[in-house]
Structure formats: C-alpha cells, structure tokens
Amino acid sequence: AQSVTQPDIHITVSEGASLELRCNYSYGATPYLFWYVQSPGQGLQLLLKYFSGDTLVQGIKGFEAEFKRSQSSFNLRKPSVHWSDAAEYFCAVGSGGATNKLIFGTGTLLAVQP
Amino acid sequence: EPEVTQTPSHQVTQMGQEVILRCVPISNHLYFYWYRQILGQKVEFLVSFYNNEISEKSEIFDDQFSVERPDGSNFTLKIRSTKLEDSAMYFCASMGLASETQYFGPGTRLLVL
C-alpha cells in the first residue's frame, strides 16, 4: 500500500537559514509527488509537484524538491527561509489510476525564529 | 486565477444533526474530492467523484456520508447524523481532465457538540 512518511514533526529554523524537510514514500510504480503548505487557519496550497523528467523541481515561494528514486525520497528545500514560511508542510503521493487520490504524510510544522 | 471555494467556513452542529458542506470546484474540472483533517492529524481521503458517480471511497466514508453534484457547479458532502468524531476540517478538491494535480479549497471547519 502507498504511504508517506515525514520523519520530522516539528522543525525550527532561524530566518535566513536554509531548510530541508524530509519526505519518504512507499509506492510500487513511478509516483506522482506533491508538497502542499498549510498556513494557520488556511487551506492547502500546492508548492510543487513531480511527475517525471528532471528530478529537481522548482515551485512557488522559492522552494524546490528533489526526487531520489533510490532513496524513495522527495525532500523539500529552500536556501533562505523567511518568517512568512512558518506553516505546516505536507508531502503527498498520488495513487494514480482512475481516482488519483492523495495520500498525505503527517506533516512537518515549521517555526521560524527571528 | 480560478480557485475552489467552500461554504460555510465554519459550522457548529449538535450531535445527530444533518450537515451539508458545499464546494464550488474550478469550472472546467471533472474530478472532485473530499478530504478531512481531524485536529492535529494528517489529511485523509474520504471520497472521489467523477462522471456523476463515486469512483472511490475510504473506510471512513460510511453510510452516514453521501456526495452529490446537484447542478453544474456545486459539489456537496452530506453527513446524515453527525457524531462527535466527525469534528474536523473538511477540504474539497478538484482536478482537471488529463491532469494529476488537485486544487484544494480553504476548508470547512465542522464542530459537532
């Protein structure tokens, strides 16, 4: 069965520091992978996605993620974090097929220190 | 930019009451979804809907739940007799044909007392 693991429940970084949020997935075929961000009281906003091709994908707000098949990982990175990046980040894998439901990880809550 | 909208943003109801959560998907999208997020937990798939029928549902989506697309624009989730454990944020999402990307609405926070 498909699953997504986000090992870090909570991360705190200083503003201006680099960020890496980890995501590991379990999926039998080539996965569709997504990162969504949820600000407090808000809905889920798509940051970026990977379907195929270049394994380094660029998203909005200066985020990028790298797909590594050998490690079953899709880690999210940002070179310099801004205070407005404080939010919860969810990695998800699409099940494909007729429904393509999303299976989410448990999320990583990012706090940004001034 | 087109977006998914949901109403109401918040709903408080008594246990045993029926609630209907409404969603307006992006206009040319054909796949529709409901997810829920219990406070402090991950987002869970409830149901997917395509071509006027349910294409997949989770174990959570029991007989108390139903979905409907009553007209060309709305997509609704009905809970017939709410339980305390139905308290959650409910997200609607939609996806276009030949796309693999779902776009989410802002959610409806449901509180069952």
Q: How would you describe this protein?
A:
- The complex is a heterodimer of chains A (114) and B (113).
- Chain A has 114 residues and is mainly β.
- Chain A has no helices and twelve strands.
- Chain A has strands at residues 3-5, 10-14, 19-21, 24-26, 32-38, 44-50, 56-58, 64-68, 73-78, 87-94, 102-104, 108-113.
- In chain A, the strands form three sheets. In chain A, strands 2, 5, 6, 10, 11 and 12 form a six-stranded mixed beta sheet that branches. In chain A, strands 3-9-8-7 form a four-stranded antiparallel beta sheet, with no helix packed on it.
- The model of chain A has no long low-confidence stretch (mean pLDDT 92).
- Chain B contains no helices and eleven strands.
- In chain B, the strands form two sheets. In chain B, strands 2, 4, 5, 6, 9, 10 and 11 form a seven-stranded mixed beta sheet that branches.
Average pLDDT for all residues of chain A: 92
Principal-axis shape of chain B equals globular
- The span between the termini of chain A is 41 Å
Largest interface: A-B, 24 and 23 residues
Model regions low in confidence, pLDDT < 50 over at least 5 residues of chain B = none
Considering the chains and any ligands shown, give keywords for the structure:
heterodimer, A: mainly beta, six-stranded mixed beta sheet, four-stranded antiparallel beta sheet, B: 113 residues, mainly beta, seven-stranded mixed beta sheet, 11 strands
In short:
The complex is a heterodimer of chains A (114) and B (113). Chain A is mostly beta strands.
Record the SSE blueprint:
The complex is a heterodimer of chains A (114) and B (113).
Chain A: E1 3-5, E2 10-14, E3 19-21, E4 24-26, E5 32-38, E6 44-50, E7 56-58, E8 64-68, E9 73-78, E10 87-94, E11 102-104, E12 108-113
Parallel strand pairs in A: 2-12
Antiparallel strand pairs in A: 1-4, 3-9, 5-6, 5-10, 7-8, 8-9, 10-11, 10-12
Chain B: E1 5-7, E2 10-13, E3 19-24, E4 31-37, E5 43-50, E6 53-57, E7 65-68, E8 75-79, E9 88-95, E10 103-104, E11 108-112
Parallel strand pairs in B: 2-11
Antiparallel strand pairs in B: 1-3, 3-8, 4-5, 4-9, 5-6, 7-8, 9-10, 9-11
